[in-house]
Amino acid sequence: xxxxxxxxxxxALSLFQTGIDAADPYVATKLCLAVAENHFEISLDLDKPAxxxxxxxxxxxxxxxxxxxxxxxxAAAEIIPEHRLASQPLAITNPENVIALKNTTVISANxxxxxxxxxxxxxxxxxKLANTEANDLVLLLVSGGGSALIPYPATGITLAxxxxxxxxxxxxxxxxxxxxxxxxxxxxxKGGHLAKLAAPAYCHALILSDVVDDDPxxxxxxxxxxxxxxxxxxxxxxxxxxxxxxxxxxxxVFLQKGVHGEVEETPKSNELFFxxxxxxxxxxxxxxxxxxxxxxxxxxxxxxxxxxxxxGEAKDIAEQLVLYAIQLTEHAFPQATAxxxxxxxxxxxQGTGRGGRNQELALAFAIAAQKHQLPGKWxxxxxxxxxxxxxxxxxxxxxxxxxxxxxxxxxxxxxNRLNNNDSYSALKKSDDLVITGATGTNVADFQILLxxx
Length: 453
Fold this sequence. Notes:
Shape: globular
CATH architecture of the largest domain: 3-Layer(aba) Sandwich
Number of helices: 16
CATH topology of the largest domain: Rossmann fold
CATH superfamily of the largest domain: Glycerate kinase, MOFRL-like N-terminal domain
Strand order of the largest sheet: 6-5-4-7-8-9
Largest sheet: 6 strands, parallel
Distance between the termini: 13 Å
Number of strands: 15
Helix content: 25-40%
Strand content: 15-25%
Structural class: alpha/beta
Oligomer: single chain
CATH class of the largest domain: Alpha Beta
């Protein structure tokens, strides 16, 4: 049934789509909200349906930001009666995920590089939150990308300063936790600051997780979550990544002031307003990986989970995955095998080419598979669930046993392309790009390796 490379490729694409569908933000949001006759209900834990937060809130402030903002807001607006809303709902998302919504302000802002449109949107959030009252509810719909979409730099820091700092961090191979630690300390909304602005109202965030450990303080830089990192941590990260000297002077000065206690730290868990703040994870990489596993089993694949919290350099992961697959296939399986992973790799930018972490991982896998002589027929997909991998129109790459032969025929050297971070053009030549378009969701990445021994 899985004998041909063509059928393996088809299955890989289908399983990837299963993962995306399982993170549908519209469906997930609908599952979490209910309006009873005189109160409003919010699910606190999808695994425990009985756990709910109930309230007779007088007015509801509805705000959404992130790649899934429009779909999440559409679902919430269909449940919450219009007369209960404090003002017109607001959704901030990237251009690819903009949907026109009735009686809603929808703002398109740039991602991953923050822009002026996002800056103005962030100011609008702050203005809306200035008018909250003690018995109001601020309902936030948060999804991946939210961090870049609502930039609101701290006093004395320009948007350009923040853009430069973020670019330096991303190019240095910093993890998402490290990037967010710095961003939180340069922001008026991130790292719990938004919960502080929402006070004295109640605050609840429905969160579509795009980070591997579902840490709510990392998703969109945790706007409603207490921050346990410090200014000293932020300085340490910039120095450790050897980018402190290139960081804008305004940023250096501001962070040093924070270290010396001249600027207030990000909100910590002992702040009283956090007593009125809660959140629910409504979709995640873990939930979607479970759905992919089930779908692969239904197709009669033997399942092996390589890593459900994947992180690290894309090239290194490719090599480790090939060696893991070889080790598994040595025990000659009588059936086709699906080796699955979920998470988010990083790329160290050394070249001038185009690509993204998933395309780089796919190309590196094809090279490593030939180098270590991965047996049998195989197809390997690495893709981002948001449909956008790096500054390209591809979600990722889908390589197979014959990819390098196709590149050779196209007179393209895969190693040279990989070393130049030019995975996009290589995979385009071998017809191995995965193009889904923007999906309206974001729960990090999936890796799907299908092998027929």
